[in-house]
C-alpha cells in the first residue's frame, strides 16, 4: 500500500480508478506501433488524513519529462495569458532591472520572454532539454535540471535567488512534493513573492474533468490542502485568484511566513467556498467515481450511434487529457479516424494506447468529417 506524498499516511480510499493507460505524452512513431506499449494504473487515491488527491508514482519524472512533446508557445491563448500576467505583476509589484524573475518549469520561454523584453533579468529552470533549448534560442537563460532542494541550494551558491518566483502548472507534476516546496523556500529572497498556478480540484469535481487525470499529474489540489502544504514549509499564502485556464485554476501568491503583511479576503472566501462544497470531507471525494462512469457511458452511446449511421468522427488537438479520455473509454480508430494538432512536433505521430494518427489541422478541410 502506498503512502501520501505530503503527510505519509497510508492510502486506501479511491477517488477514481480510470483503469490502465500509457504515459499520456508518450506519442508513437509508425515504427513503434508494432512494439509492446507500457500501460500503468491510473488509479487516484484520496488521503484520509490530509485530503490530498494523488496518483502513485509508476514512472519517474526523468523518464516522462527529459524529452517532452509539450511546447507552451504553440497555444495562442496561453501566450496571451502569459503576457497579461506579466503586465499585471509589473503593475502590482515593483519589479525592475534590479530584480530577478525565476520560473520553475519554464518550458520554451513562453512567459519569461515578456519579462525579458521589459529589460528585467530572468532565469528559467526546465528539466526537458529539448524544450529548454528553444528557450535559450529566445535569449532566456535556462538551467536544465529538475527543481528541488538540491537545485535550489546550488542556485543560492551562484547568487540566483528570486524576487519573483513563478510556477505555472508544475505543482501537479512533482512526485516529491515536500522537496519541491522546500526548494522554493530556499530560493526565494527574504522579501520575495511567489505565484503558482494549478488546476483547481473543486472544478475537476464540479465539472467532471476526470480527463485532467494522467500520469504526469501526480497530485490534484484544493486550496485547503495547498495552504497546509506551503505552511508546513514556512510559506504563507496571502492572496488567491480563481482563473479560467485549464478548465478552472487557482493562482496563489505566497511569501515567507516571517514577513508581515496583509492577507487578502480572497483567502478566507475561497476556503469557505471549498468547505461549503464538502472538500473538507472524504465522502465528497469517494462519491466522484459514479459521475465518471456515467460520462463514459454517454460518450460511448453517442459514438456507437454516430458510427452505426455511417458518420465520420475526427479529433481536434492531441493534448494529454485527450489521451486519458480515449484510453479510459476504449475509443480507438474504430471510432475516431484521426486527430489534428498545430504542434509540428506531434504531427505524423500516433496517440499512445489508441494509435490514432495525428495530422495537420489543414487535413480537416480536405477530409470534411461529419463530426
Question: Can you walk through the features of this model?
Answer:
With 371 residues, the protein is an alpha/beta fold. The protein folds into three domains: 13-57, no CATH class; 65-279, Vaccinia Virus protein VP39 (Rossmann fold, 3-Layer(aba) Sandwich), CATH 3.40.50; 288-367, Rossmann fold (3-Layer(aba) Sandwich), CATH 3.40.50. The protein has 13 helices and 14 strands. It has a seven-stranded mixed beta sheet with strand order 6-5-4-7-8-11-10. Strands 1-2-3-9 form a four-stranded antiparallel beta sheet. The protein starts with 12 loop residues before the first strand and ends with a helix. The model has no long low-confidence stretch (mean pLDDT 93).
Keyword list:
single chain; alpha/beta; Rossmann fold; 3 domains; 4-stranded antiparallel beta sheet; 13 helices
The CATH superfamily of the largest domain appears as Vaccinia Virus protein VP39
What is the total number of structural domains?
A: 3
**Strand order, sheet with most strands:** 6-5-4-7-8-11-10
Give the CA-CA distance, first to last residue. Answer: 44 Å
Sheet bearing the most strands, described? Answer: 7 strands, mixed
Q: Care to count the β-strands?
A: 14
Write down the Rg. Answer: 21 Å
- CATH topology grouping of the largest domain: Rossmann fold
The rough form would be described as globular
Structural class: alpha/beta
Query: Can you tell me the CATH architecture of the largest domain?
Result: 3-Layer(aba) Sandwich
Our estimate of the beta-strand percent is: 15-25%
Q: At the first level of CATH, what is the class of the largest domain?
A: Alpha Beta
Low-confidence segments, given as residue ranges, are: none
- Overall pLDDT, averaged? 93
Describe the oligomeric state of these chains in a short phrase: single chain
Listing every helix as H and every strand as E from the N terminus to the C terminus, the arrangement reads: EEEHHEHEHEHEHEHEHEEHHHEHEEH
- Helical content (DSSP H or I, runs of 4+): 25-40%
Number of helices: 13
